[in-house]
Amino acid sequence: MKYNRVIVWFKNDLRLHDNAALFSACKESSEIIPVYCFDPRQFNEVELGIQKTGSFRAKFLLEAVDNLRSNLIGLKSNLILRIGKPEEQIPLLAEEIQAEAVYFSEEVTQEEKNVENALENALWKKGVQTRTFWQSTLFHIEDLPFPVNQTPEVFTQFRKECEKFSKVRKTIQKPKSINFPEISCDLGLIPELSTLGLQEPASSKKGVLPFTGGEDAAMQRLQTYFWENDSLKTYKETRNGLLGPDYSSKFSAWLALGCISPRFIYEEVNRYETLRKKNDSTYWLVFELIWRDYFRFVSKKHGSKIFSLQGIKNHVDNWRKDEKLFWNWAEGSTGIPFVDANMRELNETGFISNRGRQNVASFLVNDLGIDWRWGAMYFESQLIDYDVCSNWGNWMYVAGVGNDPRENRYFNILKQANIYDKKGDFIRHWIPELGKIPGFDIHQPDSLTKNELRSYGVHLGANYPHPIVAFSTREKWTSIKN
Ligand SMILES: Cc1cc2nc3c(=O)[nH]c(=O)nc-3n(C[C@H](O)[C@H](O)[C@H](O)COP(=O)(O)OP(=O)(O)OC[C@H]3O[C@@H](n4cnc5c(N)ncnc54)[C@H](O)[C@@H]3O)c2cc1C
C-alpha cells in the first residue's frame, strides 16, 4: 500500500461501478474516505436572475448523492458531506482526518479547472498529494489517436478516427469492500433544497419519465429500456420522438452526473447485440455517445472559447439582447405552439427531447437573433441532464459558431412540426388550451379565422398569445421586431 488514508472526492462520477478514482484508491490505500461537496457557487444567480442550477437538477443531484451514500454504506463505508467551496472544505478535512492524498476525476472546463487548481495548491501547502483520473468519456483520453489539442474539428472525422484506431477500455470493477476508518469527524447531512436557496420543483405527471437521481435508478433505466422493453433495437427510428419514455434512452441525466458510465452502456449494447439483436439502432446509440465524447474533447481543446460569443469558430455576428423576447421564449409564450410546447416541457419537467432542443435553440438564435449564450445559460439552469460540454457545444453548433461544416443550422419550425408532430399530439399534451384544434392546424392557430378559433375555445391574445414573430411565407419566419 502506498498510503494509509486517501480521500476520494466525488464530483460528476457518482457511482461505484467503473470508477477509476475509487478503484485505484482501494488498491493504493489502506483506508478510504469518500467525500462529496455541495459548492454554493453552483447555486448562485447568474445573468438575468437565472439560477445556475435550477430545482429539477438540484433535486436529481441530491437524490444521486443520497443513493451513492446508501451504496457506500452497503459496502460498510460512508460518504462525508460538506457544503462549501471544495478547495477550502477538502483541505480542512484532509488535515482533520490526516489524509495523505486526494483522488478525483479530471474535468475540462474553466470553472471546474479553477477549482481543481485551487484545491491542488491548497493541498500542496499542507503536504497532501493529489491524483486525477479521466473518467467521463467512452474513449479514454490516453487512447485517442491524436493529441487532444489536435482533436478534429469535424465530428465525422473525429468519430471515424476513434472508431478505427481506438478501443473502448473495459469497465472497472466495483470495489467489493471499502475500508472506511473509525473517525470522529462530522459526516454531514444531505442538504434540503431550501438550504441551497431552491424550492421543491412542481411535480408533473406529464413528463417522459419520473427521473430519480442515482446509480440504482440509472441501472434500472438501462434494464427497462434495453432488456425489459427491448427498445434498443428500434432506437434509430424512434430517437426523434417527442412523447413517452422509450423513444430514446433518457440516459443523459445519469450520464451527466456520472451515475452510469458510458463504457458500461457500451458493454451492455454489445451484450444486447450478442443476446438479442445487432442492427443500425444498436450502433446508433454508441454513435450518439461518441457525440458526447466529441463535445468533451472539443471543450478540452478550445478551453473557455466555448463560452464566448464568437465560439470556437471566431465568428462575429450581430446578436440581440432583448430581454422581453428572451423571456417570451424561455417561458413558452412565443405564440408558436411547437416552441412553446417544448419550453413548457422543459420548465415543467427539466427534460426536453433532442428534437425539441434543436428547434427551440434554432428559434432563439435564428428567428429571434438573441445572444445564444442566454439560451445556453437558461438550459444550464433548467436541464436535469445539464452537461457543460454537451450543452455549450450543442448551442455553439446551433448558433453557427462551432466548427460545423454545415453552415446553415436553421430549423423551419413548421416544417419540423409537420415531420415530427403531424397530428399535433405533442402540442395537445403541453398546451391543453389549444387542445380542441384538430390535426395539424394546432401548430398554426393564427392561420384560423376568428370564428374557427372561437369554436375551439381559443382567444389569441387572451388564453394563448399571438405569435411574436410572423412568417411571410410557409418557408421562413421573419421577425416582426427589428
Ligand atoms: C441546444 C442543445 C443543448 C443540449 N444540452 C445537453 C446537455 O446539457 N446535456 C446532454 O447530455 N445533452 C445535451 N444535448 C444533447 C441531446 O439533446 C441530449 O443528450 C439528449 O436529448 C438526451 O436524451 P437521451 O438520453 O434520451 O438521448 P439518446 O438519444 O438516447 O442518446 C444517448 C446518449 O447520447 C448522448 N447524446 C445524444 N445526442 C447528443 C448530442 N447531440 N450531443 C452530445 N451528446 C449526445 C447523450 O449522452 C445521450 O444520453 C443538447 C442538445 C442541444 C441541441
Indicate the radius of gyration in whole angstroms. 24 Å
Helix % is: 40-55%
Strand order of the largest sheet: 3-2-1-4-5
* Biggest pleated sheet: 5 strands, parallel
Please report the total strand number as a whole number. 7
Q: Could you name the ranges where pLDDT drops below 50 across 5 or more consecutive residues?
A: 472-482
Q: What best-fitting shape do the alpha-carbon axes yield?
A: globular
CATH superfamily of the largest domain: DNA Cyclobutane Dipyrimidine Photolyase, subunit A, domain 3
The helix-and-strand class reads alpha/beta
Total helix count? 18
Our count of domains comes out at 3
Q: What is the first-to-last residue Cα distance?
A: 68 Å
For this structure, what is the CATH class of the largest domain? Mainly Alpha
Write structural notes for this entry:
The chain folds into 3 domains: 133 residues, Rossmann fold, CATH 3.40.50; 122 residues, Serine Threonine Protein Phosphatase 5, Tetratricopeptide repeat, CATH 1.25.40.80; 168 residues, Orthogonal Bundle (DNA Cyclobutane Dipyrimidine Photolyase, subunit A, domain 3), CATH 1.10.579. 43% of the residues lie in helices and 8% in strands. The protein contains 18 helices and 7 strands. α4 links the parallel β4 and β5. α9 packs antiparallel against α10, α10 crosses α15 and α12 packs across α13. The site of flavin-adenine dinucleotide (FAD) has 29 residues, from α8, α10, α13 and α15.
